[in-house]
Amino acid sequence: MPKINYRTPEEIELIRLSCQLVSKTLGEIAKLIRPGIKTIELNKAAETFIRDHGGVPAFLNYNGFPFSLCISPNNQVVHGFPGKYELVPGDIISVDCGVVMNKYYGDSAYTFSVGEPSEEIRKLMQVTMECLELGISKAVPGMRIGDVSYAVQEHAEKFHFGVVKELVGHGVGTKLHEKPDVPNYGKRGSGIKLEEGMVIAIEPMINAGRASVRFWDDGWTISTSDGKPSAHYEHTVAVKKGKADILTSFDYIEKVLKEKNNT
């Protein structure tokens, strides 16, 4: 059995602080997303914001990853490199951010649309967000990892979307990736039993087409095998009686997006 770290309420509060900085960083990125901006500019802004607020970018130099954000446009699923690519109307981009502060980690991701998304992409984003919410609803004591996984898979496949199987959610604590793994597919009632004190990142990665993916030669970037778009949302949550405690937040992002839509 893998060693799982059960966190005290005090430790969960420290993880929450890191998660809040991640959430605020993604809110700052939301302000900058527009046609014509280079993805490397988003990366620079995130690193500056994290450091200015007492954190360290968790992804930078993690196993050699050379950036502070994973930015994955369109058919890239995850782990995309920020670079000279300029966003254009109709793009979607998954932005994945991690922070370490006081030795504890936070991790979250959000998929943004650049301008108005097509109906197909809007549906993909909506269903992926719903997959996240359904997965989180199972993160209570007595449930099992398979219950979280099944909730995500069943909802995505209801809409004939592909569920990425090569990549999983994970425990979060004093390391960015801890046990247990949290797949986005599985059987109800299977896997490790969830208990209070467990902190996990739930992160559905859902493809508009086939589930299969392609690994790039850069050793990091992963894209859909059929070139269709992919969406990705992630929250870090603490397993808690009654209802999971969501430590990250999309509120900062949604506030910015609402303001943008009103201008």
What's the topology here?
Blueprint: H1 9-32, H2 39-52, E1 56-57, E2 69-73, E3 76-78, E4 92-101, E5 104-113, H3 119-137, H4 145-158, E6 162-163, E7 169-171, E8 178-182, E9 199-202, E10 205-207, E11 213-215, E12 222-224, E13 230-232, E14 235-238, E15 245-246, H5 251-261
Antiparallel strand pairs: 1-4, 2-4, 3-12, 4-5, 6-10, 7-8, 7-9, 9-14, 10-13, 11-12, 14-15
Main sheet: which strands, in order across?
8-7-9-14-15
- DSSP helix count? 5
What is the H/E string?
Answer: HHEEEEEHHEEEEEEEEEEH
Structural class category: alpha+beta
Distance between the termini: 53 Å
**Total beta strands:** 15
Helix content: 25-40%
Fraction in beta strands: 15-25%
Whole-number tally of structural domains: 1
Q: Which radius of gyration do the C-alpha atoms yield?
A: 17 Å
- Considering the protein shown, what is the CATH homologous superfamily? Creatinase/methionine aminopeptidase superfamily
**Any guess at the CATH architecture?**
Alpha-Beta Complex
Task: Kindly report the CATH topology.
Answer: Creatine Amidinohydrolase
Indicate the low-confidence ranges by residue numbers. none
Provide mean pLDDT, rounded.
97
Largest sheet: 5 strands, antiparallel
Global geometry: globular
